[in-house]
């Protein structure tokens, strides 16, 4: 699974509410928001634990020094990592906002605004949407997508790396991005 390992036994034990498998529900209760003003139905994602967007959005950040875009959590908007995400596809299909955001002109407008040239496909797309409409997303705790890659620390971002990489708590899912080995139990 390219570096992903789900620690299901520990996850089920530590979950505050029953999983859909335990309750017989057919789909999770979290959903894509139909409007940026609806915060009770958001799509769960985890922030990237790398200064990737600090790098990617450098020009926008230079032109907008007070921006949260690309900054580290908890105050910043570091961008999303699509290693772990939960999408309500039906709600997304019914969302007028999401339909509008899929239009090529909208994507080009956001890319131009943020001087964005991504290379990570869906992750880049949702990161751009998250910069513009952060209330559409529910941010998962870092323990649900514990990214292990340290490449950015060794390639020019050692001074800020720990602000992005820090993750406290019992890890539920390890993400061996950058081909990083997964810790043994």
Molecular structure report:
By secondary structure, this protein is of the alpha/beta class. The chain has one domain. It has 9 helices and 6 strands. β5, α9 and β6 form a beta-alpha-beta unit. It is globular. The N terminus is likely disordered.
State the share of residues found in helices, binned by percent.
25-40%
Largest sheet: 3 strands, mixed
| Quaternary class | single chain
Sketch the topology as an H/E string, one letter per element. EHHEHHEHHHHEEHE
Fraction in beta strands: 5-15%
Secondary structure tally: strands = 6
How large is the count of helical segments?
9
- Structural class of the helix and strand makeup? alpha/beta
- Provide mean pLDDT, rounded: 78
How far apart the termini lie comes to 17 Å
The rounded Rg comes to 17 Å
Which spans have pLDDT < 50 for at least 5 consecutive residues?
Answer: 1-40
Instruction: Based on Cα principal axes, name the global outline.
Output: globular
* Number of structural units classed as domains: 1
Strand order of the largest sheet: 1-6-5
GO molecular function: xylosyl alpha-1,3-xylosyltransferase activity
Protein name: Xyloside xylosyltransferase 1
Organism: Cebus imitator
